[in-house]
Amino acid sequence: MSYLSSNQLKQYEDEGFVSPINIFSKEKANEIRNEIEFIENEIPGELEEAGRYNAHLISPLLDEVTHNSKILDAVQSLIGENILVCGTTLFIKNPNEKGFVSFHQDAKYIGLEPYNWVTAWVAITDSNEKNGCMRMWSGSHKDNLKKHNQKFNEGNLLTRGQTVENVPKEQTTPIILKAGQMSLHHPTVVHGSDLNKTDDRRIGFVIQSYIGADVKQVHGKNGVQIARGVDKFNYHEKIRRPKKLMDTNDLKLKKQENDNLQEIFYKGSDKKGKF
């Protein structure tokens, strides 16, 4: 069992994140990268823009990551033994592209309440300050949700370009991960990331999020998978796991789930972004 240590629990409580946590080998990470790139080559556009969500529904390897027992042990330490998978996101920054993530809080638009949930950011490639790793504003999870400006700005990988202004960047912590490591972060910690200034892709696979069975979706509906324990609440429809790569019916399920997600992310907005 690889539950979080008392030091790791304290880091999460004090800072709003815990990192790095070793999950699998660099070789395994490379195998996963190859599967992602195989999907990109076989079905161009499938993992781009709003298609980057829920790739675990069409990829057995990403599904395997999502249900990895080491990840679930760590998550259980934070949200309890009944764990649901409520979506995943690929954050891919290609070299020389202007992709960045403005400082924001996940809980602002995602519609999951109460906040008994956590986001796992799994590094498929190394993630560091040169290639645009996440930066966390330590302790910011202890405040209420902050005002976010909706910028819909060029290069911003967030749905609405949602931005918390005046974040003291020099006080933020870079989340440096080796391929196969992960970080966990709280729904309300302020975080963002810079441009990739290297010659290789930076790939993060993000389980966004692992939720407790007591968590509702208040802006729409999400299909979920039971990752561990039981769901006595039944707030969400249960969806299947993939048995083979890029199955036709699984591709349809991914599309349906992503359409639902768009409704959630843009609820109350008169404008839509491409993510």
Could you name the key traits of this structure?
alpha+beta; 24% helix; Jelly Rolls; 275 residues; eight-stranded mixed β-sheet; four-stranded antiparallel β-sheet; 16 strands; globular
Question: What do these coordinates show?
Answer:
The chain has 275 residues and is of the alpha+beta class. The chain has one domain: Sandwich (Jelly Rolls), CATH 2.60.120.620. It has six helices and 16 strands. Strands 1, 2, 3, 6, 11, 13, 15 and 16 form an eight-stranded mixed sheet that branches. A four-stranded antiparallel sheet has the order 4-12-7-10, with no helix packed on it. The mean pLDDT is 93.
Produce a short descriptive summary.
The protein has 275 residues and is of the alpha+beta class.
Structural class: alpha+beta
Give the CATH level 1 class: Mainly Beta
Residue-averaged pLDDT = 93
Total DSSP E strands: 16
**Number of separate helices:** 6
The CATH architecture name reads: Sandwich
Using the CA coordinates, give the radius of gyration: 17 Å
Instruction: Provide the number of structural domains.
Output: 1
Helix content: 10-25%
Q: Name the shape in a single word.
A: globular
Enter the CATH topology name: Jelly Rolls
The end-to-end distance, rounded to whole angstroms, is 37 Å
Low-confidence stretches: none
Q: Identify the CATH homologous superfamily.
A: q2cbj1_9rhob like domain
Q: Proportion of β residues?
A: 15-25%
Element-level helix/strand string: HEHHHEEEHEEEEEEEEEEEEH
Q: Largest sheet, described in full?
A: 8 strands, mixed
